[in-house]
Amino acid sequence: MNETFKIGNQSIGKEHRPFVVAELSGNHNKSLDRAIQLIHAAHEAGAHAVKLQTYTADTMTLDSKDPHFQITDPKSLWNGRYLYELYDEAHTPWEWHKEIFEICNNLGITCFSAPFDLSAIEFLEKLNCPAYKIASFENTDVDLIASVSQTGKPVIISTGMANVSEIYDAVNVARKNGCQNLVLLKCTSTYPASPESCNVLTIPHMKDLFQCEVGLSDHTMGIGVSVASVALGASLIEKHFTLNREDGGVDSAFSLEPQELGSLVIETERAWQSLGRVNYGISSRQEEKSKQFRRTLFVSKDLNEGDTISEENIRSIRPGYGLPVKEKSNIIGRKVRQNIKKGTPLSWEILS
Fold first, then answer.
1. Max Cα separation, the chain?
2. Which of 22, 34, 84, 311 gives a 20 to 30 Å CA spacing to 180?
C-alpha cells in the first residue's frame, strides 16, 4: 500500500488531513448556473474536491415503463419513479463538464467524476480527469473497474452492499489492471442512511484487510458519522452537497448545505489532528505549565523549629509546589529543621 498519493493537489493518507469531497450529483436541478454556484459554494466552504457523475439516462437503463424499471419501495425518496426518468433528471449533461472542470481548475479545487460506462471514461480522459470513482451499484462491474484502473489514475471504489468476496474481486481487478492508488469507501446504500446502519468500525478492518486507504461515503444527515469515521482512520469523506435543501432536487433531502459543509471540513480536520500517537503523561509545553495546579503537601499552620509534622498542620492542596501527596505517610511524625510559616510548600530540605 502506498503511504501517500495525490488526488489533484491534495495528498491522501494518514499523515494528511481528510480529503473532503462535495458530491454534486443531481442537485444542480438541471441548471448549469446552479451547478456553477454549487462549485463556488463548495470551494468557499473549504471542500477539497467536487465530484460529478458522468452518465446519461440511455447509458444507465432502458426507457421502459415495464414494472421492472419502476422503484417500488415505500421508504425510498424515489418511490414510484421510473429509472429512465429519474436518471434523465439527475444526470449532469456532458456538455457542461468541460466548463465545470475549467472553473474548478481556476478556483484551485479538484474536480473528478464517477463514470458509469466505458464511453464516459473515454470522454473524461479527454478532460484529464485526475481520479475516478466507482459507485456502489457498479462495484461488481469488473469491466468498468478494469477500464478506470488502466488509466493509471487513483481509483475510489464505494463498497455499499458488497460483501468481502465482492470487494476482494473489485480490488483484485483494479490492481491487476494497473491501479497503484486505491481508496475503498465504507458506504451504506440507503438514502438517507441512519447512523445505526453505518458500521464505521468496519473502516480499520477494511484498511487492514485490503491494505489500502479507506474513506466514507456518507449518506446520513449531519456530520457526526463522518467525524467518527476519521477517528477510525478514514482518509476521504464524501457527502452530497446542495445550496439549500428546501430548493428540492433528487438528492437534496440528505445533502449538506454550505455552512454544514464548512463545519464538516473543520471538524474532520480537528478529528484527524487529535489522533496523534499513543501517549501518556505531558503532551505539550502548555500542559507542562498545568502541573502547578496539582495537589501537593503544604504547611497549614505556623511551625517552630523542632515541631512534629501531623495531620493537623499539613494539607493536600493546590498548587503543585510541595511534596507529592503519596509522600504523606513518610513525613508524618518527622520534625522541622526551622521555623516554618503557614503556606510553605513541604520539601525534604525542611525536614529532619
1. 102
2. 22
Residue type, 182: L
Q: What is the pLDDT of residue 315?
A: 97
Nearest 5°: the CA angle 152, 18, 124 is 30
Strand partners for 315 = 298
Average pLDDT over residues 150-156: 98
- Reported as a single tens digit per residue, the pLDDT across 96-114 is 999 999 999 999 999 999 9
Question: Contact at 8 Å (CB) between 312 and 342?
Answer: no
C-alpha span between 114 and 326 (Å, rounded): 63
- The pLDDT, as a whole number, for residue 2 is 63
Query: CA-to-CA distance for 169 and 31, rounded, in angstroms?
Result: 38
| CATH T-level fold of 285-350 | Type Iii Antifreeze Protein Isoform Hplc 12 (3.90.1210)
CATH number attached to the domain at 5-55+91-275:
3.20.20.70
d(CA 205, CA 196): 18
Q: Quick one: cell of 286? A: 502548555
Digit-coded pLDDT (tens) for 106-148: 999 999 999 999 999 999 999 999 999 999 999 999 999 999 9
pTM of the model: 0.87
Task: Report the candidate in 27, 95, 55 with the shortest Cα–Cα distance to residue 254.
Answer: 27
CA gap 112, 162 in Å, rounded: 23
3-state DSSP: the chain helix, strand, coil percent, rounded to 5?
40, 20, 40
User: Domain map of the chain by residue range?
Assistant: 5-55+91-275, 285-350
Query: Do 35 and 100 form a contact (C-beta atoms < 8 A)?
Result: yes
Pairing mode, strands 296-299 and 314-317: antiparallel
Which residues, in sequence order, are CB contacts of 158 under 8 Å at separation 6+?
A: 133, 134, 135, 136, 139, 184, 185, 187, 217
- Separation of alpha carbons 307 and 87, rounded Å: 90
Q: Which residue has the cell 475549467?
A: 102
Residue 225 is predicted with a pLDDT of 97
Asked whether the domain spanning 285-350 has the same topology as the one spanning 5-55+91-275, the reply is no
CA distance 160 to 199: 11
Angle at 240 between CA 142 and CA 99, to 5 degrees: 80
114 sits in which H/E element: strand 110-115
